[in-house]
Every structure is written in structure tokens, then in C-alpha cells.
Amino acid sequence: MQAIRGSRQDASAMREQNAKAPRIPDFGRRIRELFHPYRGRLALTIVLVLVTAGLTVAPPLLTQEAFDQGLFPGGGPNLPRLAEIVGGMVLIWVVSQVLGVGQTYLTATIGNGVTASLRQRLFTRLQQMELGFFTRTRTGVIQSRLANDVGGVANVLSNTVSSVVGNTVTVIAAFVAMFLLSWQLALIAIVLLPILAVVQRRVGQRRARIATQTQESLSELSAITQEALSVSGILLAKAFTQQRHETERYAAESRKQLQLQVRQEMSGQGFFAMVQIFLLIVPAVVYLVSGVLLSNGVAITAGTIVAFTTVQARLTWPLMGLLRVALDLQTSSALFARIFEYLDLQPAITDRADAVPVPQGPALGRVEFDGVGFAYPGGPGQEAVDILRDVSFTVEPGASVALVGPSGAGKTTIGYLVPRLYDATSGSVRFAGVDVKDLQQESLLATIGIVSQETYLFHATIRENLRYAKPDATDEEIRAAAAGANLHDTIERFPDGYDTVVGERGYRLSGGEKQRIAIARVLLKNPPVVVLDEATSALDSMSERVVQDALDAASAGRTTIAIAHRLSTVVDADEILVLDAGRIVERGTHLELLRLGGLYAKLAAEQLAEEEAQPV
Ligand SMILES: Nc1ncnc2c1ncn2[C@@H]1O[C@H](COP(=O)(O)OP(=O)(O)OP(=O)(O)O)[C@@H](O)[C@H]1O
Ligand SMILES: [Mg+2]
User: Fold this and answer.
1) Boundaries of each ABC transporter domain copy (predicted)?
2) Strands, E, within 432-528: which ranges?
């Protein structure tokens, strides 16, 4: 445990150093590309914006007229003129609000459309990544990019597009109106704008840095949640009474998240306060300057001053809104960078341009290993260790080979190389006579059935879990597969039968039942080649018999690579390969190997002794 805690701390220290937004070349172009499919809507939005902008310039000017021509034209109010002006104002507001609804619809579809396509592309890219990527990366961290980073961008995008558009309209309209009313007074209102722009930029950069750290911390939180709150995680924590430690771990990261969030929200508040103060004192300054102008002979009416301050007051929130959006955009650039970083991941295993489907000839089902060496790709700064060395063997179509040997010898690894879940580092793996690197991986995977050492089940019914192997399978086929895997009777005994929900990862099923579901899936898929990485060693001899029968059903008439922990299960194999530290040290049939008196004979003797010691 100590070692694990240590390494977790190292990881979090590394995280701190890395909390820099990843550098993404062509950032601007890529953002534009995201909006490309929506260019029609964007153009329409801009047209609407301009129309609304044109409309919103009018009311303040009408206010001026209402005062100067309607209310106080000199010699009593001019009611007919006033009614006209007020009617005009009402009409303009109604029309501009209706256009506003249309605008909101457009911007909402654009913002959410971009988010949806990002989410979709990210998921697709992750689906294409090789198995090794997922063994190197914590699930929670991956989930966080999809949930928190895309979610964060979504917030900004959907709020931003509409508020940028709406606020820009108001701000432009207000400035135009102000200049039309009195350019002298308008100048006062804009002197500070360049300074605002500079300060805004700096605050934005600071925020983007904090945002990167916040997202890192969110992904850590997500990883902790995912690890600790899964069935296995809870079981582990309870078994080793580590709940308090887990809670503390979460609390520490949560505190950090809290601090970062507060920092992120607070950064820029001073700036906003400054802007507010400026905007609040402008009307007062306007009165003063008007007085000065008037006493210098410049003609300014009371209507102009009232209209001017009204416009200026209406400018406050949109202007603040725009500044906020500018900040949010800078913050979201950090999130975009994290999303692009994942979108740019290159799968290590891809089809070659000239890859072919698995040839359907008499060789279909032949598996050949030719001087295969393999090392798991090490992480950055880690050295790759050789796991397999010079492994050569051939399984003819329909024949069976069994892999036995001590734990960690590389048996599962050999199983991974057949469907090209990893690429051999040296030598070649051939399938149906073709190097697997020249085959289309989808076609290769479709030809191989895999029963892995651990069975993965979805939180769904048994029927749905089985049907995953063959989406169009009839209930009849499903029942037949379950029967073949020795599972049908067991399922029938469950109160809900095939509609029993298996629970998260199948925790409601026993180990042997889960394994038989995996086998039934292979029976449904009905591939010419099967790789069976069984874990019967975990079962008592009764269940082992049941699972073994199921495995026999899975291998009948198929090329079989069986990884066995119980030697009793391999006696019938056409060839047994004894693996030790990544090398094939012995090969032959059960009897030949016993006679040889080597590692196999030793393992067999050990297991026999164990079985005799077991009180049956
Ligand atoms: N994803 C991985 N990254 C790095 N090393 C790995 C990875 N998976 C397995 N190894 C290492 O490769 C070696 C062989 O593992 P493998 O799973 O093939 O053993 P095995 O023979 O199936 O053992 P067992 O009988 O316990 O299932 C082990 O030393 C293991 O630590
Ligand atoms: Mg294994």
C-alpha cells in the first residue's frame, strides 16, 4: 500500500508540472473548422444581428425626440407627435425581441452542434485507440476529458455565441447612438476602452492557466471516483479497511478543486469592479462636462443628456457581458487544447492502406508464430522489457494448442498477439497465411473468438449481454449458445431467467457463471478460431468440470489456442507448449511431456499433490 501511495504522489507531482495547456499548432484554424458546417447559420445570425443592431439604435434617438418634440417642444406637449414616437418605440422593441428569439435558436444550435461533434469525434478517436492506450491511462481521466472538458466547452459555447451576438449588437448600437447624440460626450465614454482591452487580455491568460489546473484536478477527481466507487474499488477498500484513506484522498483533491474554482472565479473580479466603477460614474461626469460645454456655447438639450445617460446605462451589462465572454473564451481555449490533444492521439495499431480482409480459403484458421519477440510499450522514460522471445509455433485449422507455464510467463500476451491487440516487436504472427499486419483488423477480429481471463459484462440483462456477440441473434440461438456453454439450466433457475440484470460488471454472477457467459458469447459469434484464456484455477473441481465442458464446446471444430492453468484441461490438446519467462521451453503431447520429465512434469506433479491434499 505504501508503495502505491508513493507512486500516486509522484503521479500527482508530475501532474502539477504538466499543468500547462498543451500547445496545439493551428489552433485558430481548427476552431474555425469546427464552425465550418454551421457557416450558413452563422451568416444568418450575423444578418439578424445587424438588423437588430440597426433597430436598437432607434429607440434612444426616439427618446430624444419624445423629450424635445413631444413632451417639451416649447408651449405645451405635442400629443399627436408623442403618440407617433411612442408607437414607433413599441413596434421597434417588439420586432427586435422577436428577431432575438430567432437569434437565440440559431446560436443554441450552433454552440450545441459544435459541442456534440467534438464529443462524438473524441469518442470515435478513443474507440480507435489500441488496447495499450487503455492499460496506460486511467479510465477516470479519459472520462473526464469527455465529460468535464467537452462539458466546459459546451457551457462556454452555448452561452457565448448567443451572448456575444446579443451583447455586440447592444454595445455597437449604444455607441452609434451615443455618437449620434453627442460626439463630445461619447468620447468620455470610450477613453478607457483600450486600457480595458489590455487588462482583459492579461486576466484572461491567467485564467486560462488556472483553468488547465482546474481541469487536471477534475480529471483526478473523476479518476478517484471511478476507481474508488466501483464495485471492485469498494470491495478492496472494505477488505483492507481503507475507506477512510479513500475518503481523505477524495477530500484532499476536492479541497484543491475548491481552491482552484474560487481562484478561477475571483481572478478578474478586481478588473470587473474597476469597469463597474467607471461605468457608474460616467453619468455624473456627463452632467459636469455638459455644463462645461453649455457654458462654452455648445448647444446640448436636456433631451440629449437624458437620452445619452439612458443609453450609457443600458450599455453597462452588455459591455460587462462581453468582457466576461472574452475571459470565458480564453478559459475555454485551455479546454479546447485538452480536447484537441486527445483528438490528435494516433492509434498505434491501424490498418495499412493496402490491408486485405482475412482470406476465406482452406488456410482459414491457421495461426503461425514465427520467431516472435514482444515487449509491452513502456511509458515515457520507462524501458520496455522483453516479455516474449523467439516464440514459434503453428496451429493447423481445426487443431488445438495449449499454452501452459508459470504465472507471468507470457501466455495471455501470446493470446493478445493473435488478434493483433498488440504488435509483435520482432518476428511475425500470421493468420490464414497472411501477416496480421497486412490484414484488416476488423476482419481479423471478426474471425477470432476471445474468452479473456476476466469477463466483462455490461450492467444489463443476461440476454443483452449474450446478444452483444451477435446483435441479430434470435432467442432460440441465445438459448442454444447458453445450453452449449452449460449455462442454460443455471439461468433458468434465476427468478428472472434470461432477463436477470447482472449488476455492475456482472457482480451478481459467480465467477464460473460469468466465464460461461463469455463462452456462450463465443458460441454465438461462431468464429473459426478461438483464444481461450481460462481461469479455471479459481474454481472448485465441480464448477471446473462444468466450465471445462463449456470450453470443450467452444473449441469443438475450431482452431483453438487454449491457455490453461489446470493441466487436467490440456491433456487432449494436439500440442502443448510449455512457456517459461517468455520462451517455449518444451513442446509435445501430454504423455510426451510427462515422459520428458522437465518443467511440465514438475508442474503436473505439483498439481497432483495439491489435488490429493484437497479434501474432496
Ligand atoms: N499491459 C502491460 N504492460 C506491461 N507489462 C505487462 C502488461 N501486461 C502484462 N505485462 C507483463 O507481461 C508478463 C506476461 O504477462 P501475461 O499476462 O502474458 O502472463 P501469463 O502467462 O498470462 O500469467 P498468468 O498465468 O498469471 O495469467 C508479466 O510479467 C506481466 O507483468
Ligand atoms: Mg494470463
Assistant:
1) 367-606
2) 434-435, 448-451
